[in-house]
Amino acid sequence: DMRLKEFSLLMVLLLAAGAGCSRGGHEGGGGTTGQPPTQVDNPSPPDGAVNVPLNITMSWDAAAAATGYDVYLGVDRLAVEGATHSSPEYVGRVATTSYAPSGLQAGTVYYWRVDAVNSAGVTKGPVWAFATAAGSSTGDAGWLLGGYDSAGTMFNPHSTVVRFGSYELREEWVETWFTGGAPSTRTGDVDGDGEQEVVYCADRSVRILSGDGVLESAFTLPGNVDHWVSLLADADNDGDLDIFISSRVENGSLTTYIYDHQGHLIQSFTRSNAGYDSSVSPVCLLPGGKLIVSYWAGYSLKPRAIACHDVSSGKELWSYDLGAPANVSVVDVPGVGWRIVTGWSTVHNGGTGNRTTDGDLYTVVLDENGTRIFTQTYSSNGSTDGNTHALIVDLQGTGVYQVLVIETHDPTYYPGISQAHLLNLQTGAFERTVDIATNTGRHVSPAVADFDGDGKKEVAFVAGGDGAAYKLYLLDDDLTFLRSCDADRVWGAVDIDGDNQIEIIATKADEVLIYDWSLNLEASFSFGGGQKAWSLIVSDINGDGLNEILVWGNGLHCLSIAPK
């Protein structure tokens, strides 16, 4: 029967085709179907990995139908991406899904590519990146004070050891025990183990975390008022950093506390007769156990002062009343000695003190004994109302220190031309004044560092608020305006990517922004949740040669950089 023969032949052909499909599927990555292989994926180390050991074996998942793999490795992303068999980045063809490179260097970013190969062709793989372990820390002892140093420059001079090309910010861990605000955070070795800890205070609880974000210890502070961590310093000369606590007023008294990492009270000192809206903040521990503290009060007016306490006895050594002191900068000026300068705010509450009021702008400089060096007013060189932020700096890098004053005004309460001033450190005379902009807003956060690598320091600061948009301004070493961009606050200056150039660390809403000297955005990270970035510090908390960013938003976020 012809139909039966045709049916039998059809079944033979179908069975043969099915058997062929079955053999091809069974062979997987080792067979060939006349088509090029699929692309490789799932690299190890993962794309963007850091602290990779030098004896790493790189591996990847098999590509379907591949019979071999061409491996490329180098330190330039574009070179690896465009490499061919004739390129120095080509290290050879392997039959397995792994390759063990030799000669890797510590603290180096490497890029690699694996192409899948069979007789039908080559399928080019993506470029992946990893950074080898640096083998050393940045040398940073920690972010011990509010402004990194006692001058408040916000400049961490310890560069990331690994040099990154292009990079991104990556979240390492999040501390969510407290999400309701912006606890001040400090980093340093408080337990003597040779590693940095992360220390913060919220809801009267001091919490100490490891560099990996794991809680190591916690203790509760006395009273029922707000406290915060202001300073880490060795108060009892045992070689370990101690925790200096700021406080709001309670029962008419202001108390400064000093604890060790286990919650043992080392010292406390109290000022009585304090106003209902007052607070005290430790600023800087000078040699000889002299602790500079700042007192502030609102409508109650008392106390508003800079004072000095002996840490060992708790005794107040001196106190200097002021009309409306703001930020405090403390610097050991070579050949001169310690100098203390304060910013100002014209709150117009009727406050007075030592030739000053809270109705006019002043700059006051004291020595470490509380002796006045000078008091300068702004009635003839700027507006009398507004805010000033004062720092002691050497912008020219010549060893001649001056007082840098950023004077700001807002369109709502105290309009005027915002200016930058340089004052003589000995006399207070105005040596340079530059107009910045009109009504920039009163709130200021500056960072001072050599951003362009010319041996001189530039000034980056954000001003805004009270009806004025927030903006980041960049001034040259002679205070000449250079450029600006949008940002809510400047928090730090550090070489975050190891390129020997200092970046500006800023925030805007819930974003962390990293700008270069030209205010080009290098990287950003949003922690979401609609929560504003409340505070930020930079430190090598793991001792791995990479600077991490600790930022408070909806919790404490630890960010690190990763190659891309």
Description:
The chain is mainly beta and 564 residues long. The chain folds into two domains: 41-132, Immunoglobulin-like, CATH 2.60.40.10; 155-563, 7 Propeller (Methylamine Dehydrogenase, Chain H), CATH 2.130.10. It has two helices and 41 strands. The strands form eight sheets. Strands 15, 16, 17, 18, 19, 20, 21 and 22 form an eight-stranded antiparallel β-sheet that branches. Strands 23, 24, 25, 26, 27, 28, 29 and 30 form an eight-stranded antiparallel β-sheet that branches. The relative contact order is 0.11. The model is unreliable at 1-28 (pLDDT under 50).
Q: Biggest β-sheet: count, sense, barrel?
A: 8 strands, antiparallel
Into how many domains do the coordinates divide?
Answer: 2
The first-level CATH class name of the largest domain: Mainly Beta
Count of runs of 4 or more consecutive helical residues: 2
Tell me the helix content.
under 10%
- Give the integer mean of the pLDDT values: 92
Tell me the overall shape. Answer: elongated
Provide the fold topology.
Elements: H1 2-27, E1 41-44, E2 49-52, E3 58-61, E4 68-74, H2 77-81, E5 90-94, E6 98-99, E7 109-118, E8 121-123, E9 127-132, E10 167-175, E11 185-188, E12 197-202, E13 205-209, E14 215-220, E15 227-233, E16 242-248, E17 254-259, E18 265-271, E19 279-286, E20 290-296, E21 305-310, E22 316-321, E23 325-333, E24 337-345, E25 362-367, E26 372-377, E27 387-393, E28 402-408, E29 417-424, E30 430-438, E31 443-449, E32 458-465, E33 468-475, E34 481-485, E35 489-494, E36 503-508, E37 511-515, E38 521-526, E39 535-539, E40 548-553, E41 555-563
Parallel strand pairs: 2-9
Antiparallel strand pairs: 1-3, 3-6, 4-5, 4-7, 7-8, 7-9, 10-41, 11-12, 12-13, 13-14, 15-16, 16-17, 16-19, 17-18, 19-20, 20-21, 21-22, 23-24, 24-25, 24-27, 25-26, 27-28, 28-29, 29-30, 31-32, 32-33, 33-34, 35-36, 36-37, 37-38, 39-40, 40-41
